[in-house]
Amino acid sequence: MKLHTLKPAEGSIKTRKRIGRGQGSGRGGTSTRGHKGAKSRSGYKTKLGFEGGQMPLQRRVPKFGFTSHNRVAYQAINLDKIQELVTDLSIDTIDFDVLRENGLVSKKDLVKVLGRGELTSKVNVSAHSFSASAIAAIEKVGGSANKI
């Protein structure tokens, strides 16, 4: 054992800074908060996006365009995904519950079936909306497209 190899026992030295425990601690008085102002007081919190008085990024960036409040957003499901479900699960009816169980849509989604891909199996599909090419492809193989 040599002097330069000595070190304190594990857990005996605390690394956390203890503030506000008197002048003798070296971190008393203002408790590392500085003098006066809102930042020195308890409960202080900056507003989200506040940049110290500089114009915040959200207000500096120009705004343009328009999004209608009446817009209806659909979750798109293509025919190739429906064919994949039919072959994997060996079912002949695809409805909202089947899509939800397989993680393709969530509870509040509206579903629109689109015509990408090839449909080879006869299948009955129920959804909120269909594209014209999807309806044509479903009916071509003898299936039916039902709107919910």
Automatic annotation (TrEMBL):
Binds to the 23S rRNA. Gene3D superfamilies: 3.100.10.10. Keywords: Ribonucleoprotein, Ribosomal protein, RNA-binding, rRNA-binding. Residues 21-31 have a biased composition (Gly residues). The keyword Transcription regulation does not apply. Belongs to the universal ribosomal protein uL15 family. Residues 1-52 are annotated as: Disordered. It comes from Cyclobacterium plantarum. Residues 33-44 have a biased composition (Basic residues). It holds the Pfam family Ribosomal_L27A. One of its GO terms (cellular component) is ribosome. Residues 77-145 form the Large ribosomal subunit protein uL15/eL18 domain. This is Large ribosomal subunit protein uL15. InterPro entries: Ribosomal_uL15 (IPR030878), Ribosomal_uL15/eL18 (IPR021131), Ribosomal_uL15/eL18_sf (IPR036227), Ribosomal_uL15_bac-type (IPR005749), Ribosomal_uL15_CS (IPR001196). The gene is rplO. Part of the 50S ribosomal subunit. SUPFAM superfamilies: Ribosomal proteins L15p and L18e.
